[in-house]
Specification:
The complex is a heterodimer of chains A (about 260) and B (about 60). Chain A is of the alpha/beta class and about 260 residues long. Chain A contains nine helices and ten strands. Chain B contains one helix and five strands. A five-stranded mixed beta sheet of chain B has the order 2-1-5-3-4, with no helix packed on it. The chains are: A alpha/beta (about 260), B mainly beta (about 60). β4 of chain A pairs antiparallel with β5 of chain B.
Chain lengths: ~260, ~60
């Protein structure tokens, strides 16, 4: 179990709802993933097309918690207004706060992120900021009242996995009591397992499942990998070492001769 | 008067945001609104006057990562 602002969840996989080949595949993938939380967004609604209304009906059928994002916002002002609209629309104090610095890397704009987080926390939001592994940004976000931090593993949709493993390890060590969720850049179940082995509380992903050859099967693969990674962390991993260390007992080795020991 | 609704120019006689939403068929829809970059709660749409060149956003739930 892990906590998000005092609420406990069993599944450590948070799944995005975008880019699936069909609404039916999205529904099946969410079910196969066992995710209890899915991310959603808000976009301009056409009076003629009304795409959002149908999408919302589908999400309601899933019976999961929704975590609205502020994807596409480039300033604190835009992110705050988007979060306010999301709170009314989805009836939740949660917001996955994104303030984007650059369209090529989709990296967080950390100054605007801290500014927006401070404003939203003061308004009663429970902020889940999409950030980097930068410790000073994490400190500022925690001071602003963020009880969850969501560092990227690598750029959104890049599938490159944990490109700064040491940085993520350090962040975990500095914030032992904060809920840390890896958000973005995960491409393979093994990468998600690696994040969990570092002691991260959960993983949020979208593209790796939605764009997989078989999204439903991949959703299940991620669910199992995340569970395995968590079990591995809880069990306590052994430390890597430079040289070999025999697992079979040396004592009693047949034909053993002392002069072979250097 | 001319305003912008979701980035598109729209000619409207609506005096308030609530009237605009009604003329676009959004009264019962699951939408949220903003005017000139600031959120307007659904309960305040009737109290929010519109002026020429106002920029209105009307958004709904959508897929997201």
């Amino acid at each position: 179990m892990f906590e998000i602002y005092g609420e406990r969840f069993t599944s450590r996989l948070l799944l995005g709802t975008a880019q699936y080949p069909s609404p039916a595949t999205l529904k099946e993938a969410v079910e196969a993933s066992s995710a209890e939380i899915v991310t959603v967004s808000l976009r301009r609604e056409s009076a003629r097309m009304r795409a959002g209304q149908g999408f919302w009906e589908l999400i309601e059928q899933l019976g999961v918690r929704v975590l609205p994002n502020t994807a596409g916002c480039h300033t604190a002002k835009e992110a705050v207004a988007t979060a306010e609209m999301a709170r009314e629309l989805f009836d939740t104090p949660w917001v996955k706060l994104e303030v984007i610095a650059n369209d090529d890397t989709l990296q967080p704009e950390l100054f605007g992120l801290v500014e927006a987080a401070s404003i939203l926390v003061a308004q009663g939001f429970q902020v889940l900021p999409y950030t980097t592994e930068d410790l000073s940004a994490a400190e500022r976000l925690a001071s602003a009242g963020c009880r969850v931090l969501m560092p990227w593993a690598s750029p959104i949709g890049s599938a490159r996995g944990l490109i700064n493993r040491d940085g993520l390890k350090t962040l975990r060590a500095y914030f032992p009591d904060t809920t840390l969720i890896i958000d973005a850049g995960i491409g393979a179940p093994s990468q998600a397992a690696e994040a969990m082995e570092l002691g991260y509380d959960a993983v949020l992903l979208n593209t790796a499942v939605a764009k997989a050859g078989d999204p439903v099967k991949m959703a299940e693969a991620f669910a199992r990998a995340i569970e395995a990674g968590r079990l591995g962390f809880e069990a306590g991993l052994i430390e890597p070492r430079d040289m070999a260390s025999p697992s079979t007992p040396v004592a009693g080795t047949p034909f053993f001769k002392l002069d072979r020991v250097s | 008067m001319q305003i912008l609704v979701n980035g598109e120019p729209v000619a409207t006689d609506a005096c308030t945001l609530a009237e605009l939403c009604a003329t676009l068929g959004f009264t019962q829809a699951k939408v949220a609104t903003a005017v000139n970059g600031c959120f307007v709660a659904s309960a305040r749409r009737g109290l929010t006057p519109l002026a020429p060149k106002d920029e209105v956003e009307i958004v709904a739930p959508r897929q997201g990562g």
